[in-house]
Amino acid sequence: MKYKIAVIGATGFTGMELIRILKAHPYAELNMLTSESYAGLSVKQALPYFNTDKLLEKADLKKAGETCDVIFLCLPHTKSAAAAAKLLKFGKKLIDLSADFRLKAPKLYAKYYGVKHPFPGLLKESVYGLPELNAHKIRGAAFTANPGCYPTGAILACAPAVCAGLVKTAGIVINSVSGVSGAGRKMKTEYHFSEQHANIKAYKLVDHQHTPEIEQELSKLRKNAKATVSFTPHLGPYNRGIITTVAFDLLKNISTEKALAVYKVFYAAKQFVKVLPEGVLPEVKNVAGSNFCEIGLKVNTRLKKLIVVSAIDNLVKGASGQAVQNMNLMLGLPESAGLLDLGMMP
Amino acid sequence: MKYKIAVIGATGFTGMELIRILKAHPYAELNMLTSESYAGLSVKQALPYFNTDKLLEKADLKKAGETCDVIFLCLPHTKSAAAAAKLLKFGKKLIDLSADFRLKAPKLYAKYYGVKHPFPGLLKESVYGLPELNAHKIRGAAFTANPGCYPTGAILACAPAVCAGLVKTAGIVINSVSGVSGAGRKMKTEYHFSEQHANIKAYKLVDHQHTPEIEQELSKLRKNAKATVSFTPHLGPYNRGIITTVAFDLLKNISTEKALAVYKVFYAAKQFVKVLPEGVLPEVKNVAGSNFCEIGLKVNTRLKKLIVVSAIDNLVKGASGQAVQNMNLMLGLPESAGLLDLGMMP
Amino acid sequence: MKYKIAVIGATGFTGMELIRILKAHPYAELNMLTSESYAGLSVKQALPYFNTDKLLEKADLKKAGETCDVIFLCLPHTKSAAAAAKLLKFGKKLIDLSADFRLKAPKLYAKYYGVKHPFPGLLKESVYGLPELNAHKIRGAAFTANPGCYPTGAILACAPAVCAGLVKTAGIVINSVSGVSGAGRKMKTEYHFSEQHANIKAYKLVDHQHTPEIEQELSKLRKNAKATVSFTPHLGPYNRGIITTVAFDLLKNISTEKALAVYKVFYAAKQFVKVLPEGVLPEVKNVAGSNFCEIGLKVNTRLKKLIVVSAIDNLVKGASGQAVQNMNLMLGLPESAGLLDLGMMP
Amino acid sequence: MKYKIAVIGATGFTGMELIRILKAHPYAELNMLTSESYAGLSVKQALPYFNTDKLLEKADLKKAGETCDVIFLCLPHTKSAAAAAKLLKFGKKLIDLSADFRLKAPKLYAKYYGVKHPFPGLLKESVYGLPELNAHKIRGAAFTANPGCYPTGAILACAPAVCAGLVKTAGIVINSVSGVSGAGRKMKTEYHFSEQHANIKAYKLVDHQHTPEIEQELSKLRKNAKATVSFTPHLGPYNRGIITTVAFDLLKNISTEKALAVYKVFYAAKQFVKVLPEGVLPEVKNVAGSNFCEIGLKVNTRLKKLIVVSAIDNLVKGASGQAVQNMNLMLGLPESAGLLDLGMMP
């Protein structure tokens, strides 16, 4: 049996990746692909990466709600909430890839996204869709808020240490470098090839909107954790992938071997997280195109710090692959269906 | 008057950059350029970037010591110490770009470079050549140890905060991303184009050899500072430049404006450090080819942290440009001679 | 039913791509993966792109011949011929990705590869595996010589014009730019990241070994065609993909529309060649990871020339994807099995 | 003595490069730098590559004409002609970097630039500023049309063979690959980092506007040459540099050695053209940032063809460096003043 899928906003980067992944998915059938700018063209005309004759159409949410089993929302922040409000009543599986339902506190949404949340009443209806932590809630759920790209890499790097109580949870220092695709397809001078070629820079110091999302989720992992993070994103001269480096203060010294053991146990049953052996470290190229997350770590005994590094593909585990992983859980399918063989040397 | 210059090891990346900079230097004349692998070829044959007919020759240290006024050593670590030992007796200006004379404690050298220092007695004869901190010692000195590339970016980002006593000096968290040229011209699988294309990774977690160098210099900046740093280097998919992001714990909260004022005052008389206005952040492309260091910062009042970012070209301010800046001071020339107009959009 | 597959030389770039493609192939089972340098490691340890626990083993040709249905040879030129000689007697399907059986004239092999062909007697036993031209011979064949990467892009760009007799076949001018992966994983100074970053260059002017291969195949397309080509390869600063631009002299003027019609008819039944509409041109990114070849063209009426451009991924349509396409034909499977959904935005 | 310089349009890529080059020029003083979008900012604020406090101002042509000795026009095509018309009457040295005065036939201008030339009467007043061919006319001239980037690389690659009568001049096949900076700073989707990362493509087949410019200049080189060229430009995934590959039909066979001799003699007195020894070929990185042009060639005796390859930096020898070379000649300065030491490993 194949489930009918709608992708609302299919020609942005996350929509594109959904097409790539779902085309090869054993239980999915692409039923409705919408695009305001490319409506009327076939997928292969608008997105030559894919050999698909299916036509792109203007978004018709009612039709999507009536005819599809699963609806992925790949809309800009704030527009997505309005679409979700309309779609929820159809009782289908809804997965929102925007930021609109990630933060559960409307006040934080207003502060970090600069606009009042239009449907605060819906915030509690969605599950935060990070399967490695929330699979039990996502399984069978109707409405999932797909995590941000940076939060995915950061939370996966932090969760075992926080959960096991190895580290201080106030003021965790997180640095990430993302490829340019993380900014989406929109045109801005800073994303001109000539501006970012051979360039790397930090941006949005202190106030990046993914900060409260990371804190919200880490704080759930341990009683009174009240995690706070100092998060600094960077933009690098490549297209796909995020490397995240976390510096924790250890509550008490521990060997690298033991810290690794904590991580390995935590992720033992999680197919998409690879905890690397001591001395091996994550690389963005290793997860290019794939839904895997690599994690490596080392303890600095001298300074009583734990350094953890994670690598993901921001468009896959950081967006569309994870959305499909959520879909699998929501539909009661095997969690890894269609997701194990996506990687490619870049 | 032009000083006669020898570059011992002229065809590695730091040697190449010395040629580029010194060719345009108003007080320098390239007198001896040595290369074991390209001896007999002209500079333009071995290094087509440069329009120079001068012949490369095998290293003859005695001749260099007798005929040149300034000798730059661009040799691998440990080989450099032996060469320096021979050259010092000639009483000329000697600038060592290797790591051999940066660490003043032979024990740390042995620990981080994996070999006993061959001439520990000479360690005290050299000045650590970071002009923004040590100009008074470098001026007129005979022997300078040119700083490492990461330490240059890191120390410049940290010095004002440490010196002004704004921050805790134990456990400063430093993350850097370097271009591939930082690894030199040697061949290793990981530097194959296909391996590093579109890739970014962390490496040498906890134990990178530049860690004690950063600590040594920051510790001098304030009584009882005893700085310790958790330093994590990364390798990015580009050639030139280092971005360094520092997370400090503030001793007490301060506004971004005041923190910036501390940095601006500290570097007010330093020509090569640009403290950027609030809201503007360093980019590696802005310093490509140049001897400048850009610094930007922001205070995280909520978490009582100070985030400082610096950008340098690892081959210029992080190596050969700084070496020439040191030469200028050692010879009593204007500090910026030949160094102001090196930048280029990459 | 799944066929048992051996990949001899599984950790070079073409071996890697075979693993990627065959893992997702509906009729294939990876039975033996050999690697001299990584034997004993699992695939995921040696090639982190892939989530595969299968062990890499030292090559045992006898075992491969006895236990596998299809054997892919990904060995260096000349070593491959010796392996093929041993394997042929087992009567299995053999696909050689080296250059050893592409040229049917031993003299040309000796001239362009600098060594006498070790098994000239076997040259006639293999079919040249370009399915768009030779599907009828490949179907059911036992032994296929997989085309070179440049010849694939060049022959596909030229075949319709040559076959239809539109153009002079003497002195066709062909220019190609390849990504660095085309050179394989071997280390050479020129493939160091720092040497090829932001660089492009021509190489092997006039005498590239793919020249006679292109000529051999084009010459078969029309009676007395005796095609000769002036082929100039270039190396670009990226990893995957070849763009090929051909300048033909038209025998008589023709409109772009008509020339396009010739190409469209020629490839009407060929699933992996996309002849683009007038005004649209191939891009390497459009075929990244995929087995498709894009072709665009325009007539220069003023100069009576036809310009044709093709784009392929050198590792897929130019190597491993084509090898699987050949396997499909040799086994009587649908030609496109496992090959339609490999593309990805780079 | 220093000449006062105005750069009209100083914050586009060619304007920026003029600043870089002229800052270090022994006879130039930057007197007026105009920018409509950055007026009021200092150079270092708008263009952080440069350490210059000079203010950018709105264009005031009258003031430029009255107060400056040399005026560089870096304006969009067609706007430049109007500015030139106003500036010519001041009798200063005028160098136009736009396309407005390159083509001497107004009909060709209209055909290739899609608009009637606004001042056809001025076309004959300007000299085509390719110093390697026209130095005698440029020396002392008042008004120079600076060549296009592709024509510079193509004409330099072709001139000796055409001039010496070695080759057919009808239907010369020219392929070029340019870095993205060649398209200027304007925003278009195709120049988004994510669109051009790891991509290469051909564009404007047959009809690129640089075609008639190349033909115009090559046709002057030999009586009845009537050169026609089939020119195909490509866009590569890097920022600076053009590689141009020319395929000529030889009128009669000649050895590579002799062809090289022709090129070496032709350029013997030209400082900025390096004819490389047999077996050595141009690379874009070798001329990064520099005003040099590398040329390599090989004869294909079998096909009676001559293949010539050239490499330039499109922003330097292909634009601003050449403009300064023209300035030097127009002012009677040494042709290479300020231009010999601009190169840098990218």
Any overview of this molecule?
The structure is a homotetramer of 346-residue chains. The first copy, chain A, is an alpha/beta fold and 346 residues long. Chain A folds into two domains: 123 residues, Rossmann fold, CATH 3.40.50.720; 165 residues, 2-Layer Sandwich (Dihydrodipicolinate Reductase, domain 2), CATH 3.30.360.10. Helix content of chain A is 29%, strand content 20%. In chain A, strands 8-9-7-10-13-12-11 form a seven-stranded mixed sheet. In chain A, strands 2-1-3-4-6-5 form a six-stranded parallel sheet, with helices on both faces. In chain A, helix 6 links the parallel strand 5 and strand 6. The first copy, chain A, is globular, with a radius of gyration of 19 Å. The mean pLDDT of chain A is 97. Chains in contact: A-B, A-C, A-D, B-C, B-D, C-D. At the C-D interface, strand 7, strand 8, strand 9, strand 10 and strand 12 of C face strand 7, strand 8, strand 9, strand 10 and strand 12 of D.
* Approximate helicity band of chain A: 25-40%
Q: Based on the structure, what is the oligomeric state of the protein chains?
A: homotetramer
Strand content of chain A: 15-25%
Order of helices and strands of chain A: EHEHHEHEHEHEHEHEHEEHEEEH
Q: How far apart are the termini of chain A?
A: 34 Å
Which radius of gyration of chain A do the C-alpha atoms yield?
19 Å
Identify the CATH class of the largest domain in chain A: Alpha Beta
Annotated CATH architecture of the largest domain in chain A = 2-Layer Sandwich
Number of helix segments of chain A? Answer: 11
Largest sheet of chain A: 7 strands, mixed
Question: Order of strands side by side in the largest beta sheet of chain A?
Answer: 8-9-7-10-13-12-11
Q: List segments of chain A where confidence is low: pLDDT < 50 over at least 5 consecutive residues.
A: none
Structural class of chain A, by secondary structure, is alpha/beta
The counted number of beta strands of chain A is 13
Shape of chain A: globular
Largest interface: A-B, 51 and 51 residues
